[in-house]
Write a structure and sequence with these properties.
By secondary structure, the protein is mainly alpha-helical. It is 70% helix and 5% strand.
């Protein structure tokens, strides 16, 4: 790894808005593998690309194990075609789940608003009764 490609843990934290603890956690789970210079961790372009995919997967609800499996597919040597195909397939499945959750959440919000309206009416009625 060329030194000008390497980033320190602080630079990675700043670039990706994560904590050093997060980076060490991903390293402990073997999702990232920074080079070492004594106690210093040096992150490569590969590590940065992997972290970007991990964080994107996390945002979309993928588990760390799912992210690991997808990242490992890149190592197959087919220029990422297998990884892209599997990621696309899993993303389509995840989208279906998210859309279902979105619909359920919309229904729950409507229901909660109705209950809040009823509660507000009950409180107003109780205040009127107390004022009499």
């Amino acid at each position: 790894m060329k030194d000008d490609d390497a980033m320190t843990i602080r630079q990675m934290c700043d670039m990706f808005n994560v904590t050093a603890r997060t980076l060490r956690f991903y390293e402990s789970k073997e999702l990232l593998s920074p080079a070492r210079d004594g106690q210093r961790r040096l992150y490569s372009k590969r590590d940065r690309a992997r972290l970007k995919l991990i964080l994107r997967g996390k945002r979309f609800g993928f588990s760390l194990e799912e992210a690991r499996q997808l990242l490992e597919l890149y190592e197959r040597g087919d220029n990422g075609k297998t990884q892209l195909a599997r990621t696309y397939e899993q993303a389509c499945e995840r989208l279906k789940v998210m859309e279902s959750q979105y619909q359920e959440l919309g229904e729950a919000i409507i229901d909660l608003k109705k209950h809040l309206e009823w509660g507000a009416q009950q409180l107003a009625a109780a205040d009127l009764k107390a004022a009499e």
